[in-house]
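Severity: low
Component: inverse-folding endpoint
Summary: output formatting inconsistent between runs
Steps to reproduce: submit the following structure tokens with default settings.
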């Protein structure tokens, strides 16, 4: 489709590792990536885009998604001083020529962000816990009360592994990366307590 609008495609890949390799080999002016890519179909494409922008902040990147991935969308949009970046929702791309124009704008240093992405990111900043599922909130509330994983599992009639999985989801959704300098569980509890006091 893109060559019809004068956009040369130098590589097309099927997974995040191949995306990283292709960009390093071909050094394109613009990368268009899906947020969800193999092998895990979660946020591999978005994480690859962030890594590529860290290597080359001037690389133009457009991320396409079915949804707003809060954990990384803000990081991607802030990379490279917020220039040459796009985040578009697939189901809102209706006009192919308009889409090609958006790609050109990003390649020329502009920023193109779907208004729904902006709305959700602003809402997320106001209440980061809003993106948690009801069960994840229940687990976080029990952690904030000082319950162990085993105790939370007993209270909620879950397995301990289920509680660990929910806590992992909470940490990911609250964008609390692994670090030797911080305790992510404590930071999650602090976020919970702040949201309760607002």
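Observed output (run 2 of 3):
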């Amino acid at each position: 489709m893109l060559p019809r609008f004068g956009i040369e495609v130098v590589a097309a890949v099927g997974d995040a590792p191949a995306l990283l390799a292709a960009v390093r080999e071909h050094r394109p002016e613009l990368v268009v990536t899906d947020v969800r890519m193999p092998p895990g179909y979660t946020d591999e494409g978005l994480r690859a885009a962030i890594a590529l922008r860290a290597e080359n902040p001037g690389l133009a990147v457009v991320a396409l998604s079915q949804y707003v991935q809060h954990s990384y969308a803000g990081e991607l949009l802030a990379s490279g001083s917020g220039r040459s970046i796009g985040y578009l929702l697939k189901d809102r791309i209706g006009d192919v020529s308009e889409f090609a124009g958006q790609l050109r704008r990003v390649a020329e240093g502009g920023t193109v962000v779907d208004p729904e992405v902006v709305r959700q990111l602003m809402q997320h900043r106001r209440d980061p816990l809003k993106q948690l599922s009801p069960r994840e909130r229940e687990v976080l509330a029990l952690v904030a009360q000082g319950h162990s994983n085993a105790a939370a599992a007993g209270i909620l009639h879950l397995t301990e592994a289920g509680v660990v999985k929910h806590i992992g989801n909470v940490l990911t959704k609250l964008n609390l990366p692994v670090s030797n300098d911080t305790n992510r569980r404590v930071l999650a509890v602090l976020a919970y307590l702040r949201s309760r006091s607002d």
